[in-house]
Amino acid sequence: MAQQLTHVDDHGRVGMVDVGLKQESQRRAVVRSVVRLSQETMKLLLKQALPKGDVLVTAKLAGIMAAKKTSELIPLCHPIFLSYVDVRFKVKESENRIVVEAEARTTSSTGVEMEALVAAQTACMTIYDMCKAVQRDIVLEDCRLVYKSGGQSGTFKA
Description:
The chain is built from four helices and five strands. The chain is α+β, with helices and mostly antiparallel strands.
């Protein structure tokens, strides 16, 4: 049996899902994405020698700030109270990659997957912006939900 799209009614019209009667629960989502840099750009990033300043601190702040604005960016996304947002980085120097991991938490009647996605992608775009003066062919790739808990659908682990 095919899953029904939650934002589309029987007549094909889009609308916001009514979560008013759903049970509040603790919810958590973790999203992972990757930024591929050249070896030269990676060296500059690690030495904090890029023209715009500290790339990872700026990207972390941008991701956290973006998560808080998710409902303003995604048309049918509910505004929710975020109890926690973090953006973490694993710099894989030998691979010239930065693994970006964003986590969002709330106690709500709706999930935080979109907030974690927006945080991760905004952090990646900020890395791009901070590095584009020295490299234009930066690749943002492999953005995906890796963990979700809470709500009716329970726990998901990629």
